[in-house]
Amino acid sequence: MIVNRKPLTIWERLYLPAIAGGFKVTARHLFRSLFGGKTVTMDYPEQKWALPPDYRGAPYLVRDQDGNTKCVSCQLCEFVCPPKAIKITPPGPTGPMADRPNAEKMPLEFEINMLRCIFCGYCQEVCPEEAIFLLKDYSLTGQSRQEMVYNKEKLLALGGTHPGIQKWKHKLEEAKAQQDFPVKI
Amino acid sequence: MSTAATTETKPATPAIEKIKVKVDGREIEVPKLMPDWSGKLTPTTMIQACELAKTDVPHYCYHPKLPVAGNCRMCLVEFGTPALGPDRKPILNPDGAPQVRKSPRPAIACATPISPGMEIYTNTPGVKQMREGVLEFLLINHPLDCPICDKAGECRLQEYSLDYGAAQSRLVEPKVHKPKAADLGPRIVLDDERCILCSRCIRFTRDIAGDDALGFINRGSYSTLTAYPGRVFDNNYTLNTVDICPVGALTSKDFRFQMRAWFLKETQSLCASCATGCNITIGSREEKIYRYEPRQNDAVNSCWMCDHGRLNYKWIGREDRLKEVRVRGQKTTWTAALNEIADKLKNTPAGSAAIVASARQTNEELWLLSKWKAKLGAVSDSIPRTGEGDRLLVSADRNPNTNGARLTGICFTEMGAQLPQIAHGIASGKIKTLIVFGEDVTQHGIGAELLDKLETLVVSDILPNATTQRAHYLLPGCAHAEKRGTFTNVKGRVQKFMKAVEPPGDARPEWEFLHDVVHHVTGRNGFLTIEGLFNELAKDVPAFNGLTWAGLGDTGATVPI
Question: What is the CATH number that goes with domain B143-317?
C-alpha cells in the first residue's frame, strides 16, 4: 500500500510555531508541578506503588496447607521457560522420597536464575500442580551473579503457602478406603 | 547409493497374489499374504493394509513384532464387502461397479483379514465415537499422574486422548486403586494403576524372550498385571517391555525420574557391547547420556535389544576419563604430539614396530591403522573378547567390530594369534616401537616389564589403565557415542553411527588424529571428513567395494565376510 504524504503547508514549514507550541506544553507542566500541588513522580524506595492484583513479579515455589512441597519435578516450567531461567534436577532412582504423601517425585534441586527471568508467567500457567506462582516481588538485588540464582530452599521460603486441593493426598485416602476390597494380592 | 552386490540378499520368494482394497475411498493394491510377527506369511490384516495406504489406525495392543491379541479395541474400524446375489455373483451398481455393503458391526483392524474389494473406513463418525468410547473406558481407572510419570511425552494414552478422546471425564465414582511402584524385577518398576491391560509385555516375554513370567490376576476393573508368585521378572530382555508399554505402567529403574522424555536429543547409533550391533537411539541432554533405546532394523535386531547392552553406557561419563594429550607424562598439545609421533614413525626401520588395535574401533580407524602398518612394515593384531551368546541377540563375540578388524587386515581370522609373537619380539629387542589403541595389553600377555623395554610406546585409550600409565605418547580417544563411524557386525552388516555428545577435555575422535599422522607420514590426503574417509576405505578394501557413507542409510548394508 502506498500512502501519499500531504505536502507541508507554509505554516508547518516555518518550523518556529511548532517550537513555540512545544514550549507551551513544557511551561504548563512546570507551573502545574510548582503551584498546582500535583506531582507525577514518587519518592521510591521510601514510597511504593500499590500493586494491581494481577501483577507479575518474581516466580517462587509454594507449599500446600500441610507445609509440603507442591512441586513434583515434572519439568514443564523448565521446558516452557522462554529465557531458560529455570533448571530442575530430578531426583533420579536413588533420590530422596517426596515429603508429600503418595506423590513419588520431588525435585532434588530447583533453580531460577532471576537475572534471566523475564516475569512472563508461563511457568505459573503451565504448572499442573499449582506449585509455582508469580508473586509481588519486583526488586531483586544481589552482589554476585551466583546470588541471583535462587535455589529450592530460597524459593520455597520466599513463596510461602498456597492452599489447594491436594490431589495426591486425596488419591491416597481413596486408595486406603479400598484397601481390603476385593481381595488382597 | 549401494550397488546390487551390497544390498540385502533375500531368498527368492514366490510371487504373492495382490488384491485391491479401498482405504477411506482410496484404492490400493496390497499383497494377499504378509509376514506376521514371526515372519510367517499370513493373510494380510486390515491394519497392515491401512499402514500400506499410509492411514493411521490408533492401536494399543497391536505391535507388528508381537502376536496379535486384539484386546484393546482401539483399532476398531468400519468396513464393507462386495454384496453377493443369490447366484453368488457380485451385485453390480447401475454403473457396473460392484455394490459394497457396509458391515453392520465394526471390526478390529489388527485381527481381521482383508478380502478382495473390501472397503475400510477409518474416519467415519461411528469410528470416531468408538475410539472416544474406548478411551473413556481406558481412562476410567487411570490415575492421570502424568506429572510424575516417566512415560509422559511419549505415552500413547496421552497422544490418543488428545487426538481421539473426549475433552472431559464423566466419571463421578471413585477410581479403583491398585499397587503403585511395585517391584517387578531388578530393572523394572510396575505401576498397576497406569496399566491398560494391553498384554504386550506378557506376549513379549512369553513369545520373544521365552520367559513366561508375567500374567494378569483378578477380574474386571481389578485386573492386575503381576509376575507369577515366587518368580521375579528377570531375564536379559526385560527392558524391552518398557519400550513397548504404551503407557507408563512398566518403567525402567535405571531411567526412573532421571529426565523427561521431551528434553532428550535422539541420535541414531549402535550398541557396542557385542558383535550383533543392535541399532539404538541414544537419548542425551546437555552432553549427558540418559538412555539407550532400540531402533528398528529388521536385518539385525528387529525392535529389541538386551538389557546388558542397554545399560552399558555409564562409563562414557566417568570422571576419570583420559582428557589430556601427554608426551612422557607432560601435558602438551595435539599438534606437538602428532608432529613428534609422525617424525618418529618416519624414521622407524621396517619390521621394528608392532600395532595392537582394538576391535572396538571403527572400520575407518582400523583402516587408517592398517595404513600405518603398511608404512612401518609392522606386525599387528587385536584382542578377542568372548562371552556367552544366546539365541536371540547376544553374540558370543563381545567386540563390536571383529569383522572390521579382519577385513581391514589388522588381524587374521583367528584374532590374538600374533600377540605372543609381539611379546617375544619385544622381549628379544626386535620390536622397539609399539602402538596400542583402546586395549590394556598388560592383561593380554605383554606385561609391564616388556612395555618398559620399548623405545616408543604410543597409546590411545578412553579410560586409564596399566598400559596408559606407561605410554610415552598418550592420546585421549572417544567413546563411540562421541564420534561418527561404522562397525561391521558378526554377520557382515556395515552400519554407521552418529555422534550424540561431545568428548570430554582434549579428547578427539581417533580417526581424526590417525588421519593427521597418516597425512604427515605418507602424504596421503583427501578424506578429512568421515564421509570422505569411509568412501576412500570402500574403494581400498575389496569387501567394502561399492559402498558409500550415504548409501549405508539408517540400517546399513551387508558385505561378504
Answer: 3.30.70.20
